[in-house]
Amino acid sequence: MLFRFAAPIVTVLSLCQSAFGLPFIAPRGTRDNSTPLRNVAYVQTFTDSSGNFLDLTQLVTQNTGVTHVILSSLHLDSPTEIHLNDNDIGSSYWDPLWPMVQTLQSSGVKVMLMMGGAARGSYVNLANNFDTYYPILLQILQDHNLDGFDFDVEENVALSVLLRLAQQFDADLGTDFILTAAPVASALRNGGNLNNVSWPDLDAAAASSVRPNGKLFNWYNAQFYEGWGTPNESSYESIINYGWDPSRIVMGTIVSAKAGSGWTPLSTLATDISAIRAKYPNFGGVFGWEYGVAGLSDGVSPVGWEAAIGEDLAS
Ligand SMILES: *[C@@H]1O[C@H](CO)[C@@H](O)[C@H](O)[C@H]1NC(C)=O
Ligand SMILES: *[C@@H]1O[C@H](CO)[C@@H](O)[C@H](O)[C@H]1NC(C)=O
C-alpha cells in the first residue's frame, strides 16, 4: 500500500520541481499542424484603399476556421532592401501588422511568410549570395516569431539551393517550423511549371527522419488556377495519382476574378470540396489567393469567403 501511494507522490514532486525549480519556457504548442483539412489564407493586400490596415484578427473573431495565414510576398531585392510587398519589412509601416500576427497566433492560427511569387529575383539572389541573405531571412522569421516559410518559386534556380534553404531552416528553427512550397499544380506531376525544379525530385531529396511524413516540406500549396489546374476532383486526383499523399496537397484557388484567372464560385467549390473529401478523407485542405480581394465575385466579404471555405471543410 505504501509503495503504491509513494510512486504518484514522487511523480508529483518531480513535476513540480521541473516546473518551478528549473528555467522553464512554456511551449507555445507545436508549430506543425499535420492535421489535414487546412484552411489557408494568403494575405497580400494589407490595407484598404485609404491605407488603413485590414483587421486580420477578424479571421478568428468571426470564426472563419482559418488555420494558417501566409503573409505575402517577401522579396530579397538587395541585402539592404528586403521588402514585404512595397515596403521594407523592417520599416514602421508594418507596425500595425505584428500585433495582429500575435493575436492570430494566440488563437491557434499559424502565421507564415511567403517568399517569391510573380516578382522574380529573390531565389536567384539567394542562390548567388546565400551566406549574405540567409541570416537576414532567419532574423526576420525570429524577430516576428513566425511559424513557417512558404517557397513560391517562380524563377529558375537549382534544386540544391531550395534544398539547402529548407535544410538550414530545419536546422536553425527546429522540426516544428513549418516548411511549405507553392508550385503550380501541374508541376507536382512534372507537367507545366513556373521554374525548372522537379518538385517530386525535390520532395524526395528533402527527406527528414523526424518530420511528419519523413519529409522536410510539411505540405504543398498547389496552385490549381491560371491554367495550371482546376480546383475540382479530377484535377486534384491527377496530382494524387502521381503518388502524392492527399494530406500533403492543399488545393489552391483564386478568391475572386480580381485575384487572377481561374476564379471558381463558392457554390462550385462547395460541391468540389465535398466530392474530394468523400474520395480522400485525408484531404490536405484549401488555400485562397488572396484574402484582401476574397469574395468580390461572390458578393461576400473577405471574411465571409474564408468562412464559407471553413464550413466546406468542417465535418
Ligand atoms: C535550373 O536553373 C538553374 C539556374 O539557371 C541551373 O543552375 C540548374 O542547372 C537548372 N536545373 C535544371 C534541372 O535545368
Ligand atoms: C475539372 O478540371 C479539369 C481539368 O482542369 C477539366 O478538364 C474538367 O472539365 C473539370 N471538371 C468539371 C466537372 O468541371
Automatic annotation (TrEMBL):
Check the UniProt entry and state the signal peptide residues, or none.
1-21
User: What EC number(s) does the entry state?
Assistant: 3.2.1.14
Please name the InterPro entries in this protein's record. GH, Glyco_hydro18_cat, Glyco_hydro_18_chit_AS, Glycosyl_Hydrlase18_Chitinase
Q: Which GO terms describe its cellular component?
A: extracellular region
Can you give the residue ranges of the GH18 domain? 37-315
Q: Which UniProt keywords apply?
A: Carbohydrate metabolism, Chitin degradation, Glycosidase, Hydrolase, Polysaccharide degradation, Signal
Q: Name one GO biological process term.
A: chitin catabolic process
Q: GO terms for molecular function, please?
A: endochitinase activity
> What catalytic reaction does the record list?
Random endo-hydrolysis of N-acetyl-beta-D-glucosaminide (1->4)-beta-linkages in chitin and chitodextrins
Q: What is this enzyme's class at the first EC digit?
A: hydrolase
For this chain, the family text in UniProt reads:
Belongs to the glycosyl hydrolase 18 family.
Its name, as the record gives it, is chitinase
Q: What species is given as this protein's source? A: Talaromyces rugulosus
